Amino acid sequence: MHWPKCKRPASVLMNAVLFLTLITTGLFGSGTAQAASASPEAERFLQLYNQLKDPGNGYFSPEGIPYHSIETLISEAPDYGHMTTSEAYSYWLWLEVLYGYYTGDWSQLEAAWDNMEKYIIPVNEGDGNEEQPTMSYYNPNSPATYAAEYPQPDQYPSELSGQYAAGRDPLDAELKATYGDNQTYLMHWLLDVDNWYGYGNLLNPGHIATYVNTFQRGEQESVWEAIPHPSQDDKSFGKAGEGFMSLFTKENQAPAPQWRYTNATDADARAIQAMYWAKQLGYDNEVYFDKAKKMGDYLRYGMYDKYFQQIGSAADGSPAAGTGKDASHYLMAWYTSWGGGLGQTGNWAWRIGASHMHQGYQNVMAAHALSDPDSGLIPDSPTAGQDWTTSLKRQLEFYTWLQSAEGAIAGGATNSWGGSYQAYPAGTSTFYGMAYDDAPVYHDPPSNNWFGMQAWPVERIAEYYYILASNGDTSSENFQMAKQVVTNWIDWSMDYVFVDSKPVTDADGYYLDPQGNRVLGGQNPQIATTPAPGDFWIPSDLEWRGQPDTWNGFGSFTGNPELRVVTKNPGQDVGVLGSYIKALTFFAAATEAESGSYTALGQQAEQLAKALLDTAWNYNDGIGIVKPEARGDYYRYFTKEIYFPAGWSGTFGQGNTIPGTNAVPSDPAKGGNGVYISYSDLRPDIKNDPSWSYLEDKYTTSWNPQTGQWENGAPEFTYHRFWSQVDMATAYAEYDRLINGGGSGPVEPVAPQAPRNLKADAGDAQVSLSWSRTSGADSYTVKRAETSGGPYTEIATVSETSYVDLDVVNDRTYYYVVSAANAAGASPNSVEASATPTAAPVPAEGDLKLLYRTNNTNSTDNQIRAQFRITNTGDESIDLSDVKLRYYFTVDGDRPQEFHCDYAVIGSGNVRGTFVKLDEASSGADYYLEVSFAPGAGTLAPGADSGEIQIRFNKNDWSNYNQANDFSYDPTKTSYTEWERVPLYVGGQLVWGLEP
C-alpha cells in the first residue's frame, strides 16, 4: 500500500512535562502509570499514547477498532478515513507492547489482539459465526483456477481459463493436522469500520465493521480507479445475478455467491514482530504467543507463487506446476487470498499465493522470531521452523541483491512476468530464477518510489542487526548481510535528511548542489540548503535506473554498480519519520553492541535521531504530531477514470446505480469497451463529508485540466493517521529504551492486573471455575460469597488458571471473584461470576433404548451427521409413529435449516425431521432436531430394533456448525453405543435418556 507524502510544514508548540501521569479510562480500561524523573522521550511516548487512547480524540470506533485516520476525506490505500487496515492493527499491537514494557500493564496488548481476532481475522472467534464457512472443501491438489493479470483495469474481467494447472499446496495437510482445520488465521487487509459503503457484514451481522476489498484489476489500478466491493458477496449488490464478481473474472456461467479474503503479508508479519518484542521485554502469556505462532504458521502461504508454479520455471514463458515446496520463493509476497462458496451450492473453496515480491514487505524480524529456538515462537507445524529459517536467509539475500550502488533498496522480483507467466525480457537480472522488477505490483504511482518503502523494512533489518550484535553473533553470513545492508542504507539516507535547514530543489523536485546542478545520485552528495529553524526534511520519492546483477550468492555480490537511485522531493511525512528514526536508533545501538561504543556513523545516526525527535515534538497539536499536506492528486476525486465494461449495470452499497448516467466512453487505447465514472460518482456519500465543500471549491477555482496544474494552490489537509502517530510514539520509546537505557524496569504499578474472563460452570455439588492467565502473576486467590458483591471469603490459592469448588450444596447460588498476585502485591478482584450447582439428572429408563454413532469426527463442519438405532427392550410391540427422538445442538448462527434422511431400513421416506428452537438456551443446546416416523415405518416387536437410520442436517447458507460443545454430539462414538444424550419419547412422554 502506498501512503501519501507531506508537502508543507506547520508549527504548533507544546511544552514538555517533567512528570507525567497517564490515565486511560472508558473503552480502553483503567489504570495509572507514573513515569517519575523519566527522560523527555519516555514522557513524550506516554503523552502520545494518552492522545491516541483518549476517546475524545477519535482514533477508535465504537467497536474499539482503530480508524486509518481521524479525518474522513482521505484517499490513499484506504479510500476513506474511517476504513482501517491490517497495518493499523499491527501498529496498535506494537504500541501496546511498549506501553506494557513501560507500565507493566500488558492487558492492553491482550485487548488489542482480542479486538483484532474479533473484527479483522475472519474466523469464528467464539461467537458461533463462521466467517470461512466452506474452507473444509478446499482441495490442496487443485488450489485455484488460473486467470491472467493485465496491465489496465479496462482489460478486465479476466477469464478463468485454467490455462496453467495449479500446482499442489504442500501446507494444507500439516495445518489441518496441527490445528484441526484449515481456516486461515490471518488478517483480511481492509475493513469498512463504520459500514460507510453500506454492504453490511453478511456472515457476522452483529458487527458493524464489514470486510471489503478494492484493488483487483492489475498493476495500473490505483485507488482512484478501484471499485470497493464486499468480501462476502451474496449478489445483493452489484449486477443482478452476478454481484461484483463479473467485474473481475469471467466465467461460462453466472458467478456463484462467495466469500473471499486477502491478507497483506507485511501486516501479519509486523504483528508477529511485535509479539516477539513483547516476549523479550517481559510479557509471558503463552496463550497469545500461541496465537502469534499460529499466525506465523499460516503466513507461510505468503511464500508461494500465486498458482503454486515452480519458482523460476516460467522464465521461458512455460511455467511448471509445483509438486510441493518447489513452488516456494521463501519471501513475503504482496498478498495471499482464500475464499469459497456461499449458500446451497457453496461446497467449494480456493487459495492462492502471490508471484510478486516487494522489498518493502519483507520482515527479517518475523522470520527470526518464527525460526530461532530461543524466541519461543516457532510455529507448531512440523516444517514451519525450517521454512522460516530458510526465509530469514533468503530475505537477507534479497536485500543484498537489491541494494543500489548508493545504498537505497530497489523494488523486488516476480515469478510471473506481466502477471501471466510471460517469458522474461532478454537480459533481465534474476534472483533464484525470479525476474527483477523495479516496481512490483502497481505502477500508479510506482510501488518503490516512496521513501516509506525504504524506512519500513530497513528499520526491521536494523533491529535484527542489533539482536545479533547484542548476542555476540558477529561472524555469521546473516550478520554480515544485515550489517552491510543497514550500514550502506544509513550512510545514503543521512545525506538527504535535514534538521533546522531546508534542502534546495528545482521545480521538478530534484535536489541541487551548491552550484545549482541536479544531484543525480552518487556517493556523499553535497546538497545546497537554506536556514529553516525548527523544521525537518526527509526524502519522499526515488527514481530508479539500471538493474542489479544476477544473484549468485553473498560471496559473489558485486555491489551492483549498474543499479542506481536518484533521490527526490524532500517532504515531511511524520509516519515515515517515525520509522526512519527507529532505523537510526537501532543502527546506532547495534554499533555500540558490536564494538563497545558507537562507530562514527553510529554516533551520527544517534545524534540525528535525537534532533529529529526534538524537532517533531514541536508539531504536536494536542491530538498528535502532524504537518499540513498539499494533496496535488485530489483532482482525481472528480476525474472520470473508473472503468465499467459495456452492458454492466448494478447497485452500489450506498444505494446508487453504477455506472449510472454520468459516465463517459472509455479510452479504447487502454484495451476496453465500456465507460468511466469518477470517485464521487461511484461513492455519492462522499459529498456529505464536512470537508467536501472545501475540496470542491478548491477544484473549481484552482484546478486547470488543460495544464494539469493547481493554479491557485493545491488543497491542503492535516491528517491524524493512526499508524503515523504510533510510528512516532514508538520512535520516542525505542530511543529512550536503546539510547537512554530507559524503561529497564516497569514503573508503578508492577503488581498483576485483575484476571479476565472468569467463568463459573455449575455441576452436581460442585462449581468449576476458569479464567485467563494474567501476565506476571505467580498465584491466584479464589474468593466466594453467597451474596452478589460480597463480602467474599478466600477459599483457595492456586498457581493454575482453574479451580473446582467442591464445598458447595445444590440449589444454592454462589458468587466468585479471583485476584492475581506476585512478589510486588495483589491485583484487584476480577469481574464477578456466579453459578448454582444442581443435582445431576437421572436418565429415564423405559422399554426403549437408543444407540448412536457418528462418522463426523471434525467438530467444525457445515452439516451435522448422525446414525441411530432404536431398540425395544420391553414385552409389547410399539408403534414407531408414536416414537420421537431429539438431537440437541447449538445452531452457531441462526439460519433456516434443512433435514435429510440419507438411508433408513424402515424407509427414508418414513423419517421426518423438525427443528425446534429452545425458549431458553441451555448448556450445549439452543435447538433440537426432533425426528419422528410416519405410519409406514411400522412397529417395533419386543427385542427388535429399527435398523440403521442415517440423518444429516445443514443451514440453508451452508455455514459451519461448531459441534464441540453440542449436548448430543460425541465424536468418540464411531460404532453403535447406548447414548442417553439423545432422548426418546413415546406419546410425548420421556422414556429414555436425558434432556440438557
Automatic annotation (TrEMBL):
What keywords are annotated for this sequence in UniProt?
Answer: Signal
- In terms of superkingdom, the source organism counts as Bacteria
CDD domains (alphabetical): FN3
Q: Where is the signal peptide?
A: 1-35
Q: Which residues form the Fibronectin type-III domain?
A: 751-841
Q: This chain belongs to which protein, by name?
A: Cellulose 1,4-beta-cellobiosidase
Q: Which residues form the CBM3 domain?
A: 844-996
Do you know which SMART domains this protein is assigned to? Answer: CBM_3, FN3
Q: InterPro entries given for it?
A: 6-hairpin_glycosidase_sf, 6hp_glycosidase-like_sf, CBM2/CBM3_carb-bd_dom_sf, CBM3, CBM3_sf, FN3_dom, FN3_sf, Glyco_hydro_48F
